[in-house]
# Entry
Amino acid sequence: MESTDQSLDQTFDITPAEPVKLARKAKKAIIEADRGQDKEKDYVYARSQLYDIVEKMQESLNDAMDVAQQSEHPRAFEVVFNGAKHTADIVEKLADLQKKMNDLEKEDPKPMGSATSVQNNMFVGSTADLMKMLKESK
# Structure
């Protein structure tokens, strides 16, 4: 008794390996297409999370500043300043995220062997070799 797959293979006159190869190629194409979309989704998500954190930190800083001003306690002011530093760090991460995304979007990386300017040259050899090269260049 034949399995259903074997009878279908005979009915449609195909070999079992062909559908597997096509499925793998299709799956690979879908994964490649999703990568570009995932990159954009991840960027938008990370950016929105950082914005949300900054807004919450700002509210917390305002409340902590009120407490510090009312109590006039040095530790309360220290807490406010530490919170401000952490908020600034998050804003810096937001700028880094933007820079990284711009780097990812650059489509034309420098090809190997492209013309670049050389600023610092160094000659490795003896003074006799250098004098010989200079005389030959004249």
Remarks:
- DSSP finds four helices and no strands in the chain.
- The chain has a mean pLDDT of 79.
- Helices lie at 4-12, 17-71, 74-105, 127-137.
- The first helix runs from residue 4 to 12.
